[in-house]
Every structure is written in C-alpha cells, then in structure tokens.
Amino acid sequence: MSENPQTVPHQDAAPLTFSFLTLFPELLAPFADEAIVGKARGRGLVDVNLVNLRDFAGNRHQKVDDTPYGGGAGMVIRVDVAERALASLPAADEVILFSPAGERFTQAVAEDLATRRHLVFLCGRYEGFDARTEGLVTRELSIGDFVMMGGEAAAACVLEAVARLVPGVIGDPQSHQADSFSSGLLDYPEFTRPPEWQGHSVPDVLRGGNHGAVATWRREQALARTLARRPDLLRSAPLTPADTATLSSLGATPEQLSDWGAPPDPPPRRQKRRRTPPSVPDASDT
C-alpha cells in the first residue's frame, strides 16, 4: 500500500506514515485511497502501509490465532505473529494497540500523534491479541466504551482524525482550529445557500459582511451549543471573561462557572462624561 506511482515527494518533510497490522487490509484500503487522505498520499504528505498479519503466521495455512488457555469462547491472536509483523517494519515513533482498556482517543491525542513520523497500529479481531502483546506496544487507545468486531473501524477514525492535522493536507491550515474539540468547545452552526429554506433563514449576521460581528456570533453559538449538549467540555475549555458573561446570559449558574474555572465577568465599561463646552458670551453682554 505504501507504493503509489502517483506519489510526489513532499518538499519540506518526510510524510507521516501510518502502518496498520490487520487481518483485513481491504477494509482500510478505501480510507487510504479516496477523498482527502488519498489526495494527501498522492502529494507525499502522508503514507499508509497495510500489513496483513497472515503473512507472518509462520505456517502454510496462514493461521494466526489459537484457542485461549484456560478455556472460553473465541480465538486469540498469537503474540509471536504480532512480533514478527512488527519486526518487519521500520522503527516507529509509536506502536499502538486498540484496546477497551486503552486511553480515550481525543482531539488532543490526535494532535499529539500528528507530530510523529511513523505510527504503527495493531488491529485486533476475535477475542483480541494475546495479553503478552501489550509488552510490544508503546500505547493503547480506545475510541469509546462499546464493543466492535475488530479494530479496523477504529483505525479508520484515527487515520482521518490525525491525517487532517498534517500541514498541507487541508487547504486552509487554520480551518481545523475552529472545529469541535480543537477549540475546547463544540463547533458553531454553519449555513450555505439557499438563504431561505422551508421557513428557516440564514441568520442575518452571517450575511451582513461585518467580520467582527460574525466572530462574536460564532463564539456565542459555540458556547450555547456546548452548554446545552456537552457542558462537561466547559471544564477544560479556555474561557475568557467575555465567555463568562455569555454563559451567564445563557443561564449558567455561579456554581457551574466556578466549577468550570471561568474567569470573572469583564468589568462594566465606564461611560465617559461628556464635557460641556464653555458658554460663549452673547455680544449684547459686552
């Protein structure tokens, strides 16, 4: 998968390489070949290497799993298979195992991984990997508290979340900074044509051309959405005094603001006293 005849080497830095060790590389191939990730590969910004664990089975039947010691349902992927597959790869900055016991994958983790040059991911199936595989990895990740049939879907999520942060992958390098979670808040609502649709109008502020007013409106909308849908995010969001005033107007209590570490409201602006111009004596008085 790493060989792409259309790849043009990136001029500034080596691509960020994602190596996925999986029993089903065909599940990840579309995510590597299409859309933004595919274009980024073509430009030499990222590379995706799909490694079939069966190639390292060590037997003619390409059997990679076995029954668990102690009994129980399901099959377990052998640690020696994982070790041989990892040994076939160049040195990696991180070797990551998808696991329900792993660290929660967040935007902050994605931003951290985007600074690396080679990431290796172990995608389990069946009952997962032999527990001794944990000694071969540097990190364990989970994308949520639910059970899937394998790690490939989680790998696709991580690929898209991390690859889009690589410089040059997205046209506007500032665009991802306003996305949900990147700013610490949920994203503000977006609108496009038509301006009127089934009785719903695009807000006037977005059509008025006042960029300052648009920025203020977007920040207020992001705060309102976060307060209504994910107030837990406000505990770690970088709030400003103006945000505190907005949240108070939206119904946040003093107790909540204190819990979120919100700074005090900005002091009210003092109105300047208008100076009364000196009276001009009437000509008749002189």
Order of helices and strands: EHHEEEHEHEEHEEHHH
**What is the SS-derived class?**
alpha/beta
Helix content: 25-40%
* Major beta-sheet overview: 5 strands, parallel
What is the straight-line distance between the termini? 99 Å
State the fourth-level CATH superfamily of the largest domain: SPOUT methyltransferase, trefoil knot domain
Entry keywords:
two-stranded antiparallel ribbon, Trp Operon Repressor, Chain A, S-adenosyl-L-methionine, 286 residues, transferase, tRNA processing, single chain, alpha/beta, elongated, 2 domains, tRNA_MeTrfase_TRMD/TRM10, 28% helix, Alpha/beta knot
Topology record:
Elements (H helix, E strand, L loop, with lengths): L15 E7 L2 H9 L1 H8 L3 E7 L12 E2 L9 E2 L1 H9 L6 E11 L2 H7 L4 E5 L16 E4 L9 H12 L32 E2 L2 E2 L9 H19 L11 H9 L4 H6 L27
Parallel strand pairs: 1-2, 1-6, 5-6, 5-7
Antiparallel strand pairs: 3-4, 8-9
Provide a brief overview of the structure.
The chain has helices at 25-33, 35-42, 79-87, 107-113, 152-163, 211-229, 241-249, 254-259; strands spanning 16-22, 46-52, 65-66, 76-77, 94-104, 118-122, 139-142, 196-197, 200-201. The protein is an alpha/beta fold and 286 residues long. The chain starts with 15 loop residues before the first strand and ends in a 27-residue tail after the last helix.
